[in-house]
Fold:
Amino acid sequence: MSEIPVTHILFVSTALFFIGMYGLFTRRNMITMLMAIELILNSVNINFVVFNKYLYPEKLDGLFFTIFIITIAAAEAAVAIAIIINLYRSHHSIDVEDATEMKY
Structure:
């Protein structure tokens, strides 16, 4: 079985990162912005795993960082969805521009 070259995996990771950045800066819907942030975090996870496998195959530091990031991403998603639900209840919209006109 042949191994996939590092450059191919890093290209996929870079593409995921920039797709996430594009989605974060161009979308107004908070749910799609949250998905874009998750794409960015997943590209970072791919980088950690690839660099760990190819630079330090006997260590598990990259995998531990990846598990930590996945845990943080799950907590971030739970908090973000709670905030989005709260904003929807108060503004009846999850559009970012509607949220700027906050009612106190």
